[in-house]
């Protein structure tokens, strides 16, 4: 094994789960949230008290440093102050980071007294009839009001962004903020998150990002990140990685100059003769065809590497740029499609079956305890599906109706149904029909309920085909019953499809998908 191969393998295995926190010179390492662990007797009480005192002092220093960085004039804040804040913040426990971010959100928000005063002044003026001296007063108050409505922490974020390593630090800070919001979802923290998300989206505009084709010749440190961050189909070994970067395959990443050597997001592409129906076709069941024979560029994995950039749609721009690049390099490629997971399907289906089974049981028993059951009751299964499922009912999957039988099959511990020659032919048409319903009809706030579907539809794709047992891995069976979906990007329709989806939630799909409903 070469040094390069060894470096990739070892560093991927030894990669820290929390690389954001490092040993710092000016501040102690992060203090554990439970300092009493692994101590006994009186000694641990003294140690615990000492640790808590140290933790409190560090927090106070970091908070004071933050205040200095925010309150300094535009030219007065020094690199040393910003460095101290970044290092000090990284040394804090997640609990103390939450306290600090809450203080930032509340104490450095909009100056509402100033806003009220300006609004009073503005409403007290008569509307000018011409461009005279009175209109200049209007313009001045409007300018002042616009600036007063900006939170004080805006300048803090802007200063960090222009500081070396600041953009990466802000991404880490937002990741912490998102984690904290799951436990303490307050209006001030939500507003802080929305504001930082908007700023990050602006600073990471397509004009600032560099598209790079990742190859086997790239530094080991970069390839190690591809192994570590691959989120859809884990890279099993070095041979797997080399294949994904070799003939018939492409990998492209978006990079930002402020975060060198680290892709913000990357996409894996397979050059194929036709649109693949199973992930096994893509992940090397067979050798790739010669590239000059390919007519389809299949996007089979897209992974974001920065949790703090959640909700910022970098993938939209990445896909469009990759399509343009591949089309220019290989004019013979005419189809651009995906082979995508359906991560929310089984969760939705199991919830639906459980709810409707309960409603059906209440109706059978004449129970009136829940008057809403009749209102929300629906026929999940067709009559012929109900009959087919009841014919399968046995001791291992018994039930009083088809929904209960299906629910029992799908919740079997080892997913035995997925390998049963007796069960599969019955379940296939049922699960495929309900999957089409899930993708096309189940919505949240007018958009597709499934997160991956929503991503591709808002980028201008259409739902082309769903594929039975396309992913037989344990993850694939648990997420979607093994079903995967092909989305197709038709170059002439991308903008129209994206616009109609954004405007009215319209989902474009092939006749084959509609025929399953």
UniProtKB/TrEMBL annotation:
Residues 108-203 form the Malonyl-CoA decarboxylase N-terminal domain. Residues 39-48 have a biased composition (Basic and acidic residues). Residues 17-48 are annotated as: Disordered. InterPro entries: Malonyl_CoA_deC, Malonyl_CoA_deC_C, Malonyl_CoA_deC_C_sf, MCD_N, MCD_N_sf. Pfam families: MCD (PF05292), MCD_N (PF17408). Residues 17-26 have a biased composition (Polar residues). Residues 208-489 form the Malonyl-CoA decarboxylase C-terminal domain. This is Malonyl-CoA decarboxylase. It comes from Eruca vesicaria subsp. sativa.
């Amino acid at each position: 094994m070469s040094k390069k191969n060894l470096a990739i393998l070892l560093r991927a295995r030894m990669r820290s789960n929390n690389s954001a926190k490092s040993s710092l010179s000016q501040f102690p390492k992060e203090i554990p949230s439970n300092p009493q662990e692994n101590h006994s007797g009186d000694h641990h009480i003294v140690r615990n008290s000492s640790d808590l005192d140290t933790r409190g002092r560090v927090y106070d220093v970091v908070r004071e440093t933050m205040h200095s960085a925010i309150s300094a004039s535009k030219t007065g804040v020094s690199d040393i102050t910003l460095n101290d804040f970044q290092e000090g913040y990284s040394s804090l426990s997640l609990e103390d980071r939450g306290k600090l971010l809450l203080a930032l959100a509340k104490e450095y928000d909009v100056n509402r007294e100033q806003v009220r005063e300006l609004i009073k002044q503005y409403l007290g003026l008569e509307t000018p009839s011409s461009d005279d001296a009175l209109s200049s007063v209007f313009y001045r108050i409007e300018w002042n009001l616009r600036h007063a409505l900006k939170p004080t922490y805006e300048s803090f974020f802007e200063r960090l962004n222009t500081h070396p390593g600041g953009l990466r630090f802000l991404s880490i800070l937002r990741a912490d903020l998102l984690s904290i919001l799951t436990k303490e979802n307050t209006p001030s923290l939500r507003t802080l998150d929305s504001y930082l998300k908007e700023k990050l989206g602006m600073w990471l505009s397509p004009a600032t990002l560099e598209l790079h084709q990742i190859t086997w010749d790239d530094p080991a440190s970069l390839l190690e990140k591809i192994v570590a961050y691959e989120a859809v189909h884990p890279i099993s070994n070095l041979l797997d990685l080399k294949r994904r970067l070799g003939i018939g395959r492409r990998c492209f990443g978006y990079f930002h100059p402020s975060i060198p050597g680290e892709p913000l997001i990357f996409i894996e592409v397979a050059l194929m003769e036709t649109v693949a129906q199973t992930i096994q076709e893509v992940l090397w069941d067979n050798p790739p065809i010669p590239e000059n024979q390919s007519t389809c560029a299949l996007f089979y994995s897209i992974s974001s590497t920065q949790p703090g950039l959640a909700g910022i749609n970098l993938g939209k721009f990445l896909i469009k740029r990759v399509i343009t690049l591949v089309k220019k390099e290989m004019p013979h490629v005419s189809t651009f499609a995906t082979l995508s997971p359906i991560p929310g399907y089984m969760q939705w289906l199991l919830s639906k079956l459980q709810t409707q089974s309960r409603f059906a049981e209440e109706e059978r028993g004449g129970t009136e305890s829940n008057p809403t059951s009749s209102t929300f009751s629906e026929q999940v299964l067709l009559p012929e599906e109900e009959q087919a499922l009841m014919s399968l009912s046995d001791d291992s999957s018994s039930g009083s109706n088809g929904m209960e039988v299906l629910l029992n099959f799908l919740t079997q511990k080892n997913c035995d149904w997925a390998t049963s020659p007796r069960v599969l032919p019955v379940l296939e048409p049922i699960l495929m029909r309900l999957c089409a319903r899930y993708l096309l009809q189940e919505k949240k706030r007018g958009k597709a309920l499934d997160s991956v579907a929503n991503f591709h539809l808002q980028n201008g794709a259409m739902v082309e085909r769903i594929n039975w047992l396309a992913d037989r891995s344990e993850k694939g069976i648990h997420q979607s019953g093994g079903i995967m979906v092909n989305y197709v990007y038709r170059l002439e329709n991308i903008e129209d499809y994206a616009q109609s989806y954004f405007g009215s939630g319209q989902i474009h799909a092939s006749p084959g998908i509609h025929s399953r409903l």
